[in-house]
Amino acid sequence: MHIGIDIGGTNIACGIIDESGQLVFKKRMPSGGSREAIAILDDIAYLINELKIKAAGKINSIGIGVPGIVAKDKGYIYYCPNINLGRINMKEEIEKRTGLLTFVDNDGNLAALAEREVGVLKGVKNAVLLTLGTGIGAGIIVSGEMLRGANGLSSEVGHMVIGKNYYDCNCGKNGCFETFASGSALIGYTEKLLDESNKSSLLRNSKRINAKAIIDAAKKGDKLANESYSRFINYLGVGIVNLINILDPDIIAIGGGLANAGEFLTVPLKEKVESLLLVNDFPHAEIKIAKLGDDAGIIGAALLAKKMYKA
Amino acid sequence: MHIGIDIGGTNIACGIIDESGQLVFKKRMPSGGSREAIAILDDIAYLINELKIKAAGKINSIGIGVPGIVAKDKGYIYYCPNINLGRINMKEEIEKRTGLLTFVDNDGNLAALAEREVGVLKGVKNAVLLTLGTGIGAGIIVSGEMLRGANGLSSEVGHMVIGKNYYDCNCGKNGCFETFASGSALIGYTEKLLDESNKSSLLRNSKRINAKAIIDAAKKGDKLANESYSRFINYLGVGIVNLINILDPDIIAIGGGLANAGEFLTVPLKEKVESLLLVNDFPHAEIKIAKLGDDAGIIGAALLAKKMYKA
What we know:
The structure is a homodimer.
Chain A: E1 2-7, E2 11-17, E3 23-30, H1 37-54, E4 61-66, E5 69-71, E6 76-79, E7 88-89, H2 90-98, E8 101-106, H3 107-118, E9 127-132, E10 136-142, E11 145-146, H4 178-181, H5 183-196, H6 211-219, H7 223-247, E12 251-255, H8 263-276, E13 286-289, H9 296-310
Parallel strand pairs in A: 1-4, 4-8, 9-12, 12-13
Antiparallel strand pairs in A: 1-2, 2-3, 5-6, 6-7, 9-10, 10-11
Helix pairs in contact in A: 1-2, 3-9, 5-7, 6-7, 7-8
């Protein structure tokens, strides 16, 4: 069996897959991403040891997805804007702590790998998977192959500049896609609207404003929630049309926490995308909700562990 | 021998290549792109007949590069924002008028083909060629192959939204890359500065403001020209970093009329790009001036004609 770990800006999710690729156990915990790296690494090692016990020691290898720029061969994390894990050799740190062979890749690539192996991108030749969470992760498939680029740094779609925003991205630039169309962008803008106006809103009673609460309020017709959600959809559309204009994929799949909104996301999004396309009466990328939901990252990481262990 | 025609928003350039791929003759004329399509097509046919005479009838086929969205197999132009040739079957129209086998593709793809066969992208695995002219054309090479996308509509990089601009793109959107960083964008913004201020500028004495005049003035230290040129470089950098973040190519090559600026373009551009990269101490795309200059489009179109004629 193999362990898959999906490190996000908000949560760390982990799970075990068996030799047939089935997810047989999963668990999640808060990332506490602003803590020192050593505390986060120790937590991950602790999680792994729990999973080892769960699997009665029958673990062959570990795969880890990281929301940042990873030198995949070395397992070294160059850059990690949403969690304090930059400049760390993740492979070495986890192997040292657990004694298990560990492989590391970008989380968007791994989610796309999972969707391609067992999800919505199975058999698809040209595709983009976007994972909307704390940031925007992505995996890109071109001519049936994962796009890696010249230096393994491709698919950092979340840092594509698409406009001017009221705050800077963690990467230092202004206007990154993920500052408009990630889960945290949706939450941040909603909080801004709540702070800056006296408009009534169902969200004023929420103990904790998360993306789900905003979407639930928007569904109930809450004006403020809808204002924020519409802005989110509009910019998501702009970023997706950029990707269509550059890559012309068969499918754009939406994963991550926000994908739980289902048709409440895809119906207005498709409308926005169609309004921005260069040519309308021509085939263009279909927009679909990813199949594996929040599990894509865990499954992809575990599939990486399985593949590399065999190789 | 084969004829190559490069249709631009400002000029139509054409030439002849021999069987070894050498450009043996070239000529250009204004596009008059706002005229009716039939007048433009007749002009192109007239040009071709001139070239046929020049080549003493030894022409085997014609290749045409179009600044828009082309269904390459049918030779049909779906969309052409900067010249009035949308919704035209270019292949049929030219074959009817000239009796010569004709092949059509997007101009950016053809310029990239030329640079890959005989120019700066020879042997390069992952690359983007940007042609900066009336619009921004592009050709993308991934893993040694021309990127075409699912429907042959990829590489429309000029219509990637990268910010908010003071005027809308011909495509109807606001903020397209080519409204900030093409030749016409540079000219338009300079004219705006001249109109809206009383600042002295060498350009006030110019009979005709073109990109070359602006760059020459900027080189001489003209403040207004430098203000406009800096804005152009900044946005060009933003668009290029978007492409690096998505595609991670080995090389970004700059072609088209603006590429004549040489180091006056690449030196500040590299500085801007480096300031925006996610990771600096890691290999990243080299920025180079394309080798074939304005001839890339003609050579690429003629190479298409040669390839397809043989096939």
